[in-house]
Specification:
The protein has 248 residues and is α+β, with helices and mostly antiparallel strands. It contains 7 helices and 9 strands; from the N terminus they run H-H-E-E-H-H-E-E-H-E-H-E-H-E-E-E. The protein has a 9-stranded mixed β-sheet with strand order 2-3-4-5-6-1-7-8-9, with helices on both faces. Strand 5, helix 6 and strand 6 form a beta-alpha-beta unit. The longest helix is centred in the first third of the chain and has 19 residues.
């Protein structure tokens, strides 16, 4: 005895929805994409997978960097800008440096935070100046000062090693060898005080900075990866540390 003998047809909605709720393999029904009952099960799995990815990205953020090391003298020629002087940054330079950052960045919040944090932590800074105008600056972590990137990625700083960070130059002078000249003079001062190895971290996405480091004589020594967990902690092979959003 068949279902048709009881008065039911193959197209009957009651039978079709009971036996095939998602409409899979039913060639006699016209599928309506807006009708949830006609969507195949893989559509729901796809939606769930995309949602899971968004949740994971909100919880985990990968931070990938390349570690560079400079042991020889930088390969750099003199800056073509006349009368450029490089000197140590002092507390009196704070206002001028802040004004430079604001003038050179569409959104100066992040670089201003790094500037303030570097000065508060006592990092050794150098600036390039011409005719009273600051054209660029950079920071170095020495003498056991703590740096969030050094701790998060386990940079092997020794007692007479330095870690360079946040090298900045005015936009119109970046192609005039100014960043390299600033870096060379700063490192010459560090070497005169006995610092031999100069480390630097470059984001895996910052190709321009990577090429700059290689051009002046740095060499790649390691690939450093960490994961920011829920914007609270950073996890890497160096351990678990609180996430410092200013530098990471």
């Amino acid at each position: 005895m068949t279902l048709q003998q009881f008065g039911f047809t193959h197209a009957d909605e009651r039978i079709s929805r009971f036996t095939n709720p998602f409409g899979c393999g039913d060639s006699n029904r016209e599928r309506n994409p807006s009708d949830p009952t006609t969507r195949p099960l893989r559509w729901y799995w796809g939606r769930a997978a995309r949602l899971a990815k968004r949740i994971l990205r909100a919880i985990f953020r990968e931070i990938s960097n390349t570690l560079y090391l400079l042991e020889a003298d930088p390969r750099v020629t003199a800056s073509p800008i006349a009368d450029v002087a490089v000197r140590r940054i002092s507390r009196e330079d704070r206002s001028a440096l802040r004004a430079l950052v604001v003038a050179e960045n569409r959104d100066p919040r992040a670089p201003l935070e790094r500037l303030e944090d570097a000065m508060q932590r006592g990092y050794r800074g150098y600036l390039a100046q011409c005719g009273g105008q600051i054209l660029g600056y950079g920071w170095f972590t020495v003498d056991g000062a703590r740096h969030p990137q050094v701790e998060a990625f386990g940079v092997p700083l020794g007692p007479k090693d330095a870690f360079g960070s946040d090298l900045f130059a005015v936009q119109k002078y970046r192609k005039h060898n100014l960043p390299a000249a600033l870096l060379a003079r700063a490192i010459a001062d560090l070497r005169a005080q006995g610092y031999r190895k100069i480390y630097g971290l470059v984001s895996a996405e910052n190709r321009a900075s990577a090429l700059f480091h290689l051009r002046v004589g740095y060499r790649r020594v390691d690939r450093c990866t960490a994961f920011a967990l829920a914007s609270l902690f950073v996890v890497s092979r160096a351990g678990v540390h609180r996430l410092n959003r200013t530098w990471l």
